[in-house]
Amino acid sequence: MIAGSVLLAETLFSQETPKLVAFDLFLANAQSYAGQTIALHGLVDKSEPVTGFELTEVQNSGANAKAQPSPLQANWMKDATKVSLQEGQEVVVIGEIQMRDNTPIFHVAKIITDKDAIRQFIRPSERRPRPGDNLGHDAQPSKSISD
Question: pTM of the predicted model, to two decimals?
């Protein structure tokens, strides 16, 4: 019974965790995400506390950096908890994509602003070592049983 409960909980959690979509991939193919709940990693640009904000792609420095990032309008859903955002703040937004005149509008249900939570969301396999994680793994087994 316990195994069934754990499996059910994992299934429900995986259904609730939206797919993280690359910002540039989303902008190139926004129509295909219409009506879906997704997560985007970006930077806040032009925040308007009551209505929403513009979201831009997190730019990498170097040769692949774009000259002018494309903004995406993000509006708060009716039931969403609105938070104060600063221009340039890194966020992960979770919400539903709607199309209006062939322009994507992101309806934000949840926003993640904590840097550690953002890193965990965008790199879920990466976790910090905890005390005791390496217990027993530092020991080197002897080369033979007789040693």
Answer: 0.68
